[in-house]
Amino acid sequence: MNHYVRAIGSMLILVYSMLTAFFFIDKVFTNIIFFQGMFYTQILGIPVFIFLNLVVIFLCIIVGSVLAYKINQQNDWLKQQIVRAFEGETVGINDQQLELYNETIELYQALVPLNQELHKMRIKTQNLTNETYNLNDLKVKKIIEDERQRLARELHDSVSQQLFAASMMLSAIKETDLAPPLDQQIPTLEKMVQDSQLEMRALL
After folding, report:
1. Domain boundaries along the sequence of the chain
2. Span 38-58, pLDDT tens digits
3. How far apart are the C-alpha atoms of 89 and 80, rounded to whole Å?
4. Which residues of 53-83 are buried (b: 16+ CB within 10 A; e: fewer)?
C-alpha cells in the first residue's frame, strides 16, 4: 500500500508542479500560453480546470498503480531470495521471469555474498556437530572399555585367589591316602583348576 501512495503522490506532485510553472509563465508571457480560458470554458458541463484535474488524477492513479505493482513484485522476489539464502538454498532464481530494476539487481548482488557466507557457516556448523558427536562416541567407548577392564581385573583377582586356594587344597589332599576312586579324580580336578587359572590370565 505504501508503494501505491508513494508512486501516485510523486506523480501528482510532478504534474501539479508543471501546471503551476506553466500558470506563472502564462501570467508573465500572456502572448505565449493562455490559461485564463480554463476557468470559463466547460467540458460536459464541468469547468475545464476541474476536468483536467480529474483527468490528471485518474492518469496518475493508473500509472502509479502499475509502477507500485511492479515495485511490489520486485520486493516479493527479494524477500523470496532472502528466505532462500537463510534456508541454504541457491539465490537468484527468477521463477516469475521478472524484469528486474537496477536497484533490485544491486540488492541481489549484495545478497549473493551473504548467501555464500551463510553456506560456509552452515558447513562449519555441521562439521563441528559431527566432530562433537565423534568425540562423544569415543568418550563413551573409552568409558565402557575402562569399566570392562576394571571388572575383569576385579573378577580375575577374586577368582584367581579362589582357584589358587583350591589348588593348594588339592595338593594337600594328594599327600593323604585316599581310597579309590577318589585318588583317581584328584589329578582331573587339578587339571581343571590349572586350565581355569590359564583362562583367567588370558582375560587380561
Report:
1. 2-100, 123-202
2. 555 666 766 666 677 777 777
3. 11
4. beebeeebeeebeebbebbebbeebbebbbe
Taken in order 114, 118, 119, 120, is the CA torsion positive or negative? positive
**Cβ pair 114, 90 in contact under 8 A:** no
Phi and psi at residue 110, in whole multiples of 5°? -75, -25
- Write the DSSP assignment of 94-157 as a string of letters: -TT-----HHHHHHHHHHHHHHHHHHHHHHHHHHHHHHHHHHHHHHHHHHHHHHHHHHHHHHHH
- The number of angstroms, rounded, from the C-alpha of 163 to the middle of its chain's C-alpha atoms is 63
Over residues 173-201, the pLDDT tens digits come to 766 766 666 666 767 777 777 777 777 66
Helices (H) then strands (E): counts for the chain: 4, 2
- The CA-based angle 38-44-46, given to 5 degrees, is 45
Given a contact cutoff of 8 angstroms between Cβ atoms, the answer to whether 111 and 91 are in contact is yes
Listed residue (47, 45, 96) closest to 73, CA to CA: 96
- Residue 49 CA to residue 45 CA, distance in Å, equals 12
All three cell numbers of 31, joined, read 502572448
Q: Cell 500509472 sits at which residue?
A: 63
Residue-wise pLDDT tens digits, 54-82: 777 777 777 777 777 777 777 777 777 77
